[in-house]
Amino acid sequence: MSGMLRVVLGDQCSRGLSALAGLDKDRDVVLLAEVMAECTYVKHHKQKIALVLSAMRHFAAALAARGVRVDYVRLDDPANTQTLGGEVARAVARHGSAEVVCTEPGEWRVLQMMRGWEAECGVPVEIRDDDRFLCDLARFRRWTQGRKQLRMEYFYREMRAATGLLMQGDQPEGGQWNYDPDNRKPLAKGVQPPPPPRFPPDEVTREVLALVEARFPDHFGTLAGFNWPVTAREAQAMLADFVAHRLPRFGDFQDAMAVDEPTLFHALVSTSLNCGLLLPREVCEAAEAAYRAGLAPLNAVEGFIRQVLGWREYVRGLYWLKMPGYAATNALEATRPLPWFYWSGATRMACLRAAVTQTRDLAYAHHIQRLMVTGNFALLAGLDPVAVNEWYLVVYADAYEWVELPNTHGMALHADGGVMASKPYAASGAYINRMSNYCGGCHYDVKDATGERACPFNALYWDFIARHAERFAGNNRMAMPLQSWRKMAPGKQQALRARAAAFLAGPEMRAEA
Ligand code: FAD
Ligand code: DLZ
Ligand code: SF4
Description:
By secondary structure, the protein is mainly alpha-helical. 48% of the residues lie in helices and 5% in strands. The chain starts with a strand and ends in an 8-residue tail after the last helix.
């Protein structure tokens, strides 16, 4: 008797995946397929490919150890068609499957392909909801109805109440929903962030690392520092280490940046969450348990839970609400090509050099680096959102379009015209100087705005305000900088705009090597 073909994608390595629910071990087969199409639809960082393939191989082995019939197609299998649809069709024929069962994918692009599988395979294809999130898409859509503006904070409060996380009855723990004002400290002198735990590659991962080096030599990034959890057990160890050693100070230093401290007090769980090795509920519950046991303060735990229960769920809802049009948004009409230093790190701007080189070596930068360094520069310089979006999708090991695109077009670039955030996160060098120790070692002078060695962020900031003065005239949250610009002496305005123009025309901004 022919059973069902259960399809598991590379970012669906979760034991409780909806596509596996009701699996019949005697009749059903689980398919995992490594395919070039998914490894190259953008030229992902080498570490991202290695992470996904290693997680898939480990997940397949864990299923097989539980007596599940697993069909695993390797990238170098000569019969591999190298597309997901091609491999599903081949597997249906191989096993004589009566039906295909899958879980909706994380990307709109893949959902369109999945909808074509029925025609490609000649059997019914059931696409189940992805219930690994805390807010399902129908609920998110309902929440948006009748609202003039969507704001994460209100969504987050509803999710706190709905899940009971950090609640005292119907009131927020401690009486406040949000403790962000306590969470804006630069790294204090003498505070040494604990090093993240090590996950030495096992034989499976070593084989994958060699494969990736051989097959994707021209992709961005290095593999030497690969240290990502590739199994649920390792991911839980990363989470436990965070809760014990970094969570207590996560809040205080959430926005801090420091030379040679690429991870600070961050959790390093996004790669595991996004490929299914951890679930958002277990991550939030682990943080809440630390608070209840008196092991971590409320500002840290609330700040962390807000990222996972609030921002992560919110961006996913927004992505599916707004796609496919969202990817083409360009409200600020930005068209400048991406400067080459985004790939090479070869820039005299110390903050950008640090962000890009650590991204190359670790496939990781923390949120404030992504938002206020690489993102802020792209916003101020008017870089083309399509190019910036592709860069963010390529360079991070946790990057999938559902989470990356709203953060890039919405949060960093304001390309969506304010759907995601009420004002652009634009800042001059003063912000970076306040929150980091980058400026001390920089070629440029953060205190200067118009001289030859003036910090480029300063003139670019005012140039950005001037360029968009009319557009932001009705935005209360932009009133202060607009007023300061208007009050500025014309000579100073001119000097700032001239410095911005000279920098944008200069060698730092060249688009090719
Ligand atoms: P922590 O700082 O410890 O935060 C804990 C968790 O909260 C993260 O693991 C993540 O799951 C969640 N989280 C925090 N902020 C966000 C957010 N803004 N959106 C969604 N989830 C959030 N995150 C991705 O997972 N994939 C991406 O491709 C991605 N691209 C980004 C692009 C830009 C321009 C910006 C500004 C942010 C992006 N983020 C992305 C969000 C955030 O930077 C990362 O989730 C975070 O740096 C991951 O590291 P961590 O696990 O140490 O996070
Ligand atoms: C990201 C990725 C990569 C690099 N490789 C594979 C693969 O070989 N096979 C697979 O099933 N999935 C892979 N993925 C994940 C898919 O691209 C992912 O399912 C989509 O990005 C949707 O979120
Ligand atoms: Fe970055 Fe400007 Fe500081 Fe240099 S001076 S590190 S360019 S903010």
